[in-house]
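Posting this for the archive.
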Amino acid sequence: MDRLKYVLYIAGVFPLLAGGLVTAVLALGYYSLPAILLAGGVGLILALPLSYLISRRIKREDPNFDHREPPEFGLMPDPDAREA
C-alpha cells in the first residue's frame, strides 16, 4: 500500500492544486459559488493521481527502495509490510 500518496494528498497536493484553481477562477472574474466549487472539485479529483505520481517519483529516486517489487493486494493492508 502506498501510504505516502495519502500524506501527500492531504498535506500538500490537494491544497496547492485546489487553491491554485480557485485563485485562477477568481482572477478570471467568476465569483459565483458553482464556479468556485467546481474549481475545488477539479482540484480534489486531480490531486489523487498527481500525488501518486509524486510518491512514485520520490520512491524511484530512493536508492534503498526497490520499486520493481510487485505490490500485494488484499482487503486490508498488512501494517508490517514494506511500503509499496
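Residues 3-59 form one domain. The chain is about 65% helix and 0% strand.
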